[in-house]
Backbone:
């Protein structure tokens, strides 16, 4: 048996063969026929296909299953004859988290034909025995001479991942609840100290109490952000929508933030039409979304610059725009800012602080409203956040 050292140490090169004048005859190697070559290639593809560690389903242009590997069959608990040659959307049923069937036209395998681009999604599949399995999938078009000749879907069972995510969310929610009570008590007592309930404070004591109060406020904001996110991730947010006048709502938010902007020597300007603009929204949640976007515009902008808020009704839709002259966001980073805990590295991020949870939450609330959020930005030139309400 070879010792490990045999693999590690380079071997001395083999001695060169002694030169000889006699010619050595090599036996002729048979050239494989085209059919043999093809069979070999097919066997190789088959081996590759079945050794992929994830479920794979290939469909033809009509959406019929032309190939499926064993892992896919195992995850879905189907037998090969149940699915091969069958129409995919009608055989393997996809559902959303609430158990609502995904319409055929919305199935990634159909969407991929329309867009020609790979799609990543999480769905639930109904197995042959009727049970549900959580899936993360990637679907790509199969192209021949730039024409789609089918689709390929690679997927895996994410039941365990979802269980861990849920456990983590529950932990964050529980820990935040437990932290909020003592943090609120600190706020109350620090506030009382500042207001002189325990007698007059010296200048140094006052500065310390103010520090305690401010740090505690940041702590409470973080806890509230975590709780809000845990609540929305758990699907526990029910919107309470009613017809709301938007100009007074924005005016109120702007008035509340006025001092913060003034302290930074920034101007916060509001432009709105003469006629009231109405929308059916959850006022409390939408207020928090707008507060976050306007607050960010100020936070990520240098002193002496301006932030413009505007509202207008255009083609039956309401557009609320928050435009700043701030540090901006590089185009490649824009998608990231809606991810949980994302804080981009910019010249102001360390100084202003934050949890990286505000925009994640805001986007989810806007999604629940069926509203869109667009971001245009250029590094060092400023950003424009536009909310379009339907
Ligand atoms: P944070 O608590 O860090 O402000 P958000 O979720 O509100 O969290 O924003 C995520 C990140 O997006 C911020 O940390 C910042 O890097 C970037 N960002 C958000 N708004 C702006 C803006 N108006 N200008 C530049 N960067 C921004």
Residues:
């Amino acid at each position: 048996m070879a010792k490990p050292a045999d693999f590690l140490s380079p071997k001395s090169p083999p001695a060169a063969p002694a030169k000889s004048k006699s010619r050595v005859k090599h036996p002729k190697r048979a050239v494989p026929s085209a059919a043999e070559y093809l069979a070999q290639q097919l066997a190789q593809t088959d081996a590759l296909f079945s050794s992929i560690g994830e479920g794979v389903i290939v469909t033809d242009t009509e959406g019929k299953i032309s190939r499926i590997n064993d892992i896919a069959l195992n995850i879905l608990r189907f037998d090969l004859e149940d699915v091969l040659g069958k129409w995919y959307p009608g055989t393997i049923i996809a559902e959303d988290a609430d158990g609502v069937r995904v319409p055929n036209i919305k199935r990634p395998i159909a969407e991929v034909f329309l867009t020609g681009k790979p799609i990543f999604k999480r769905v639930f599949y109904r197995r042959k025995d009727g049970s549900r399995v959580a899936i993360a999938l990637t679907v790509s078009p199969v192209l021949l001479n730039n024409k789609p000749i089918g689709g390929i879907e690679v997927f895996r069972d994410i039941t365990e991942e979802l269980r861990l995510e849920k456990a983590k969310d529950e932990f964050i929610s529980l820990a935040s609840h437990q932290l909020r009570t003592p943090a609120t008590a600190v706020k109350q007592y620090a506030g009382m100290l500042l207001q002189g309930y325990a007698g007059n404070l010296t200048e140094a004591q006052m500065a310390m109490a103010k520090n305690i109060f401010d740090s505690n406020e940041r702590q409470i904001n973080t806890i509230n952000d975590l709780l809000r996110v845990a609540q929305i991730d758990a699907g526990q947010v029910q919107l309470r929508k009613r017809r709301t006048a938007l100009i007074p709502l924005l005016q109120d938010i702007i008035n509340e933030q006025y001092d913060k902007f003034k302290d930074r020597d920034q101007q916060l300007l509001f432009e709105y039409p003469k006629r009231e603009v109405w929308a059916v929204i959850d006022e409390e949640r939408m207020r928090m979304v707008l507060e976050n976007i306007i607050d960010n515009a100020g936070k990520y902008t240098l002193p002496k610059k301006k932030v413009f808020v505007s509202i207008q009704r255009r083609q039956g839709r309401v557009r609320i725009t928050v435009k700043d002259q701030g540090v901006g966001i590089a185009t490649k980073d824009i998608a990231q800012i809606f991810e949980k805990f994302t804080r981009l590295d910019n010249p102001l991020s360390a100084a202003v602080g934050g949890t990286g949870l505000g925009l994640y939450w805001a986007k989810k609330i806007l999604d629940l409203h069926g509203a869109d959020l667009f971001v245009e930005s250029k590094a060092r030139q400023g950003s424009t956040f536009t909310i379009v309400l339907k």
In short: The chain has twelve helices and 13 strands.
